[in-house]
UniProtKB/TrEMBL annotation:
Keywords: ATP-binding, Coiled coil, Cytoplasm, Cytoskeleton, Microtubule, Motor protein, Nucleotide-binding
GO terms for MF: ATP binding; microtubule binding; microtubule motor activity
Lineage: Eukaryota, Metazoa, Chordata, Craniata, Vertebrata
GTP-binding listed as a keyword: no
Protein name: Kinesin-like protein
Residues at which ATP binds: 98-105
GO biological process, one term: cilium assembly
Entry's family note: Belongs to the TRAFAC class myosin-kinesin ATPase superfamily. Kinesin family.
Alphabetized PROSITE patterns for the sequence: KINESIN_MOTOR_1 (PS00411), KINESIN_MOTOR_2 (PS50067)
Annotated region (Disordered), positions in chain: 375-410
Coiled-coil segments: 495-578
PANTHER family documented for this protein: CENTROMERE PROTEIN E, KINESIN-LIKE PROTEIN
Record's compositionally biased regions (Basic residues): 376-389
Subcellular location: Cytoplasm, Cytoskeleton
Length: 661
């Protein structure tokens, strides 16, 4: 996709949001361990198990929203500028990250029925279509898709067949995309909300100890906005903005879930994909990494443009304030702290080749030309018919100027077809009344007139179909400025501009305060003067104690990082052991119930598809078919940069099983 590069890089914006204490946490007597400084954009977390005197850990972000913050505050200050950029042709992504039960879905969706509690997604819908209604001399096409990643399988939430698993593909121009993902054209807020509600009904959710309505999958609502307008050169230019609204499943500890059946397996897959996301962020932040492991999970591949790519990205880190969530909240804060160092290079997607808006415009022009051609043909036929009648003395051409006064192709074609039908009926009646004709000639002429009437009927049906198709295509394009009530919209626009100015002013104040704090620490030593040696000793002793406390905090941070690494490793080992047990069981079934020759046939059909990064089966070739053109299965998986494949895991399970030791 062609794009105009933007000068310089843009950092990924990271904001933190803390939910209120829940009734369950208050009843259990958990203490609050999080403190948020909204003005400075800082979050402090205190270890409930820390020794007396240990300082809390502090993290600084682009913005911080405490439990009293409103949904509109987050949207106006953080998300609104990104939606404006998408309407200008940039790619944009908003995703919420955090432990399960910390308010990710509430932040992204909120309570749709209550205006004050509407989340980022419904507010974005309102923002997009309000902007379109106020625009002038522009045509828009808005499409929506909805998908989820459940247990590393991609499902189209808007498809009729929910069992179908979709495949990831990659295009050199457009990047990573999903093959056969359904897309719906929407013309207003009501329609796009309907699409969202349909998909939400089929999304995977479940109950755990941490959350009664826990999301068990990563959900992505994709909005594509195509805009066409005439440029300074007099030609039509199209911009395409893509908005990814991502509601991630929550990270969770197996011992806190208290779930059985499919829940532990779901949690394992969720944690693996989030771990892959963390690895990608670490590799992007670490300047020494030469390889970014996007292919480690479906989630990271889909977010490839959003992390280190050409999109503008916002991450909302959601936190739980209670002491029992300390480990998860600290992990989320560290994750978010690393993410804010990612640099993207946003660019405008201008005049891409594969826009649906351009296809719609070309189809509308083609249909209009066909309708006009039929209309002009009607005029010619009508004029020639009237001239013939005038020459035969059957009529005059007094009404020739009526054609120029007819309004619209539809009326023109309707009159023409009606006139032609009446004329054919008259001629048919005249033939039947003419006794001078031989019966065979009369029958032949009547058959010709019947054929002409049938041809006229088919022409009428084809014209009606063309008109219906033309109207349907044109109705899908949204033309700005058609439904504007000028005075009201101007007032609303001014209010929105004022809100944006206030949000921008708050952001600048926060950045200035953060910068002042840093400068104060750097210049304090230079400004200090001592009146006596004793005073110098006391001040430097305080400094030494402060530095020692910082050293202890760094040591504690290193120990915490080590403990976190051990916990993550234990979770991964537990997931690996579970998968190994399943593979051993499946291999035993293969060995005992499948004949060796059938197993060999299956193994010989395996080949590795590097485009999709997975093992596949070759299709069965009929007897006598040309099998030389089929893809060959590699003799080994060596050389493919990917995690251990399913085939390799089966081989490992075979070697590790007691029967084969």
């Amino acid at each position: 996709m062609a794009g105009k590069p933007r000068s310089g890089c843009e950092a990924l914006r990271v904001v933190a949001r803390c939910r209120p204490m829940s009734r369950r946490e208050e009843a259990a007597g958990y203490e609050r361990v999080l403190e948020l400084d909204v003005k400075l954009g800082q979050v402090s977390i205190r270890n409930p198990r820390a020794a007396p005197g240990e300082l809390p850990k502090t993290f600084t972000f682009d913005a911080v929203y405490d439990a009293s913050s409103k949904q509109a505050d987050l949207y106006d200050e953080t998300v609104r500028p990104l939606i404006d950029s998408v309407l200008q042709g940039f790619n944009g992504t908003v995703f919420a990250y955090g432990q399960t039960g910390t308010g990710k879905t509430y932040t992204m969706q909120g309570a749709w029925a209550e205006p004050e509690k509407r989340g980022i997604i419904p507010s974005a819908f309102e923002h997009i279509f309000t902007h379109i209604s106020r625009s002038q001399n522009q045509q828009y096409l808005v499409r929506a898709s909805y998908l989820e990643i459940y247990q590393e399988e991609i499902r189209d939430l808007l498809a009729k067949d929910q069992s179908k698993k979709l495949e990831l593909k990659e295009n050199p121009e457009t990047g990573v995309y999903i093959k056969d993902l359904s897309s719906f054209v929407t013309k207003n807020v009501k329609e796009i909300e309907h699409v969202m509600n349909l998909g939400s009904q089929t999304r995977s959710v479940g109950s755990t100890n941490m959350n009664e309505h826990s999301s068990r999958s990563h959900a992505i609502f994709l909005i594509t906005i195509e805009c066409s307008e005439t440029g300074p050169d007099g030609e039509e230019h199209i911009r395409v903005g893509k908005l990814n609204l991502v509601d991630l499943a929550g990270s969770e500890r197996q011992n806190k879930m208290g779930a059985h059946g499919e829940r532990p397996k779901e949690a394992s897959k969720i944690n693996l994909s989030l771990s892959a996301l963390g690895n990608v962020i670490s590799a992007l932040v670490d300047g020494r990494s030469t390889h970014i492991p996007y292919r480690d999970s479906k989630l990271t591949r889909l977010l490839q443009d959003s992390l280190g790519g050409n999109a503008k990205t916002i991450m909302v880190a959601t936190l739980g304030p209670a002491s029992h969530s300390y480990d998860e909240s600290l992990s989320t804060l560290r994750f978010a702290n690393r993410a804010k160092n990612i640099k993207n290079k946003p660019r405008v997607n201008e005049d891409p080749k594969d826009t649906l808006l351009r296809e719609f415009q070309e189809e509308i022009v083609r249909l209009k030309a066909q309708l006009e051609k039929r209309g002009m043909l009607g005029k010619k036929r009508r004029r020639s018919s009237r001239r013939k009648k005038a020459m035969d003395g059957e009529g005059t051409v007094d009404n020739e100027g009526e054609d120029e006064n007819e309004d619209g192709l539809e009326k023109n074609m309707e009159n023409y077809l009606k006139e032609q039908k009446e004329r054919l009926e008259e001629e048919k009646a005249a033939i039947q009344d003419d006794h001078s004709l031989v019966s065979e000639e009369k029958q032949k002429l009547l058959q010709e007139k019947e054929k002409m009437i049938e041809h006229l009927r088919r022409e009428q049906e084809a014209t009606e179909l063309l008109a219906i198709k033309y109207k349907a295509m044109e109705s899908k394009l949204l033309i700005g400025g058609r439904t504007i009530v000028d005075h009201t919209n101007e007032q609303q626009k001014m209010l929105e501009l004022r809100r944006q100015e206030i949000a921008e002013q708050k952001r600048r104040e926060r950045e200035m305060q953060q910068e002042m704090l840093l400068r104060d620490e750097e210049t304090m030593e230079l400004r200090e003067t001592f009146t006596s040696l004793q005073q110098e000793v006391e001040i430097k002793t305080k400094k030494l104690k402060k530095l020692y406390a910082k050293l202890q905090a760094v040591k504690a941070e290193i120990q915490d990082q080590h403990d976190e690494y051990i916990r993550v490793r234990q979770d991964l080992e537990e997931a690996q052991n579970e998968q190994t047990r399943e593979l051993k069981l499946k291999y035993l079934i293969i060995e005992n119930f499948i004949p060796p020759e059938e197993k060999n046939k299956i193994m010989n059909r395996l080949y590795f598809d590097s485009d999709e990064d997975q093992w596949k089966f070759q299709p069965l070739v009929p007897t006598g078919g040309n099998s030389s053109q089929m893809k060959r299965r590699p003799t080994s998986a060596v050389g493919y940069k990917r995690p251990i494949s399913q085939y390799a895991r089966v081989a490992m399970a075979r070697r590790s099983h007691p029967r084969f030791r």
